[in-house]
Amino acid sequence: MPMSRAQFTDVVTAVREHTSVLLGLTIGYSAEDWAAPTALQGWTRSHVASHLVDGADCLARTVEGLRSGDPEPLHASTDEERVAIELGALASGLDLQIRLDTSASRLQKLLPDLEGVTTLVEPRPGFRIPAWRVPLTRLGEVVTHHVDLDPDARIELEPDTAVSLLAHEVERYALRSKRSAVRVVADEGYEGAVEGSDDEAEVRGPATDLVLWLTRGIVSPNLIRSWA
To answer: Parallel, antiparallel, or unpaired: how do β-strands 182-186 and 191-194 relate?
Structure first.
């Protein structure tokens, strides 16, 4: 079921606010900062930025395609996406900053049009969602890649927005071919479970912390983990 108008608006607002925070971080990067490695194997901060640009551009094309009645696939293949990211990572820090800003602004202007739109889109191969959830896809990208750029970043989301994002990420996690069985129990009242190849791990805590644990394996002191 689509989220309420207030919830949808909150997610769109969260995308804008967290993008602004991320841009405030990257504007201070030197050439050496951009070239620094991240926890993502083989990726520098330039790769992360290029991926964020590519993600915003692809989502924007999808929304524009919905307007015209001919939504485009985000990428023809994983290889095409990989090439786009590698080429984008070769840009200078200034160019990356400009592209981060302009691509995010383009997408942000389009997101409000998706309220209540149930047409299915495919932000990841095999992951089909109604178009009204595209803002959640972008919020997940911005939040997780902010932490990739700065592992010490403190991510704070409004409770309802955090729960919506967690439920979205649980669905994405369920599509992983190699995954552990997991149950997440958010303090805000959400529970989600995914079957996997081993004994189920149950993790409890704030929804935002659970998002970062599920997507990046970040264990915060606010989380309690146990095995069934």
So the answer is: antiparallel
pLDDT at 91 (0 to 100): 95
Q: Which two tokens stand for residue 14?
A: 């969260």
Report the domain count for the chain.
2
Give the structural domain span for 202: 175-228
Same domain? 151 vs 210: no
- pLDDT at residue 124, as a whole number: 74
- Domain-located, residue 169: no
Could you list the beta-strand ranges (E) of the chain.
120-124, 127-130, 182-186, 191-194, 201-205, 224-227
The arithmetic mean of pLDDT across residues 54-78, rounded, is: 79
Strand pairing report for 120-124 and 127-130: antiparallel
Average pLDDT over residues 221-228: 82
Tens of pLDDT, residue by residue over 182-212, are: 999 999 999 999 999 887 889 999 999 999 9
What are the two backbone dihedrals, phi and then psi, of residue 69, each rounded to the nearest 5 degrees? 85, 10
3-class secondary structure for 70-85?
CCCCCCCCHHHHHHHH
Which pair of structure tokens corresponds to residue 92?
Answer: 């200078």
CA distance 63 to 187: 33
CA–CA distances in Å: residue 228 to residues 182, 201, 209, 211, 212: 10, 6, 21, 21, 22
In a domain, 189, yes or no: yes
Q: What's the CA dihedral at 162, 163, 169, 170 to 10 degrees?
A: 150
